[in-house]
Amino acid sequence: MDERLVVEVVGDRSADELRSLRDWLVAEEELRGxxxxxxxxxxxxxxxxxxxxxxxxxxxxxxxxxAASVLxxxxxxxxxxxxxxxxxxxxxxxxxxxxxxxxxxxxEVQRITAELSRSLDPVGDRETGDAG
Length: 132
Description:
Oligomer: single chain
């Protein structure tokens, strides 16, 4: 069974940024059908629901690595400061606050991608992957 990861973008344009991130994620073949926008109930007096978060169905076979790579690529196209929070089904969360992402060198991008991929891997995969 796939675990569901919740992804939130914190900032002034969080709903627009979440829609943008969703577009990037579903463009990746391994992630198609695994990404869904989550809507929050409308505010009193509002006409519709607001985008609150994304959910991504994780599973074996490199899905976490694909999601991490897409997220880093998406972050590199942002301007200014970006904050992304990921919440696993067990409640643990990882938050990335990045400034001037487009200025990162290749080594730093690889490090962040590896860290992000590890944080996204299903719990069982992380436990077996730590043996090396």
